[in-house]
Amino acid sequence: MAWNEPGGKGNPNDPWGNNNRGNNNRGGNQPPDLDEALKQLMDKLNGLFGGGNNRGNNSKSGGGGGLFGVAILVLVLMLGFQSVYTLDETQQGVVMRLGKYLKTENAGLRFKIPLVDQVVRVNTTQVRNAEIKERMLTEDENIVEVELNVQYRVMDPVAFALRVEQPERTLLSAAESALRHEVGSTAMDPILTVGRAVLADQVQVRLQNYLDRYQTGMVISQINIKDARPPAQVKAAFDDVQKAKQDKERLINEAEAYANSIVPEARGRAQRQLEEASAYKSRIVARAEGEAERFESLYGEYRNAPKVTRERLYIEAVTNVYTNASKVLVDVEGGNNMMYLPLDQLMKNMPKPAGVQDIMSSSDISRLTDQVLREVRSRQSTTTSSRREGR
Amino acid sequence: MSPKAMIGIIIAGVLLLVASQGLYVVNEKERAIKLQFGEVVGDDIQPGLHWKTPFVQNVKKFDARVLTLDTNPSRYLTSGKKYVIVDSFAKWRIKDVKAYYRATSGNRFEASNLLSNLLNKGLRDEFASRTLHEVVSGERDELMTKMTQLLNENTQEELGVEVLDVRVKAIDLPDDLSNSVYNRMSAEREREAREQRSQGKELAEGIQADADRQKTVIEAEAYRDAERIRGEGDAEAARIYASAYSKDPEFYSFTRSLKAYQETFKENDVILLQPDSDFFRYLKDSKGQ
Question: Taking every annotated instance into account, which residue ranges of this chain make up the domain Band (chain B) (predicted)?
Answer without folding.
Answer: 21-185
